[in-house]
Amino acid sequence: MKRLMINVASSSKELANVRNMVLCALLIAIKLVIGLYSIAVTPYLKISFSFLASAVIGMMFGPVVGAACGGITDILGYMIKPMGPFYIAFTFIAVISGSLYGFLLYKKKITLTRCIITEIIMMVFINLILNTYFSSVLYGKGFMAIIYPRFIKNLCQLPVNIAMLYTVLTFVNKITKSNNLSV
């Protein structure tokens, strides 16, 4: 618990540095661009790889900055390309996602096991539980009616997401270490 509070305190100080603020802005822009190319299968089922930018923000800057960037990205993403009605619950989910990536990856060694655990937590808690629940509320569909296709989609996408997450985080880790950036 003490280490958790230290990470939160450290994360909240990350944006005091202008370079970190600029890096966050660039990563937000990258996430928005990647999000433009998501594939909407149905109104409540889409495939996207914008989670990678959220994971990088969480790994580099921690849970506080990850949460803030998650909320900002969700609102900006809706302004750029609205997909359905604006629903504050999805912004809340984006804030939780950013903070979870921060809690799970900030100041931690990037290993395949850590990436597997992170992606499983994100897929179960965020994608299957929270997103499915709020999608069912928003669209008036039964929770059980939309969780099955979402479960199959997430199960198929899990190995791809894990491989991409591990590859990207390892690459970013090498770049940040070679350029003396914070991580």
UniProtKB/TrEMBL annotation:
The keyword Signal does not apply. The chain crosses the membrane at residues 21-41, 47-72, 84-104, 116-139, 151-172. It holds the Pfam family ECF_trnsprt. Keywords: Membrane, Transmembrane, Transmembrane helix. The keyword Transmembrane applies. One of its GO terms (molecular function) is transmembrane transporter activity. Gene3D superfamilies: 1.10.1760.20. It comes from the Bacteria. This is Folate family ECF transporter S component.
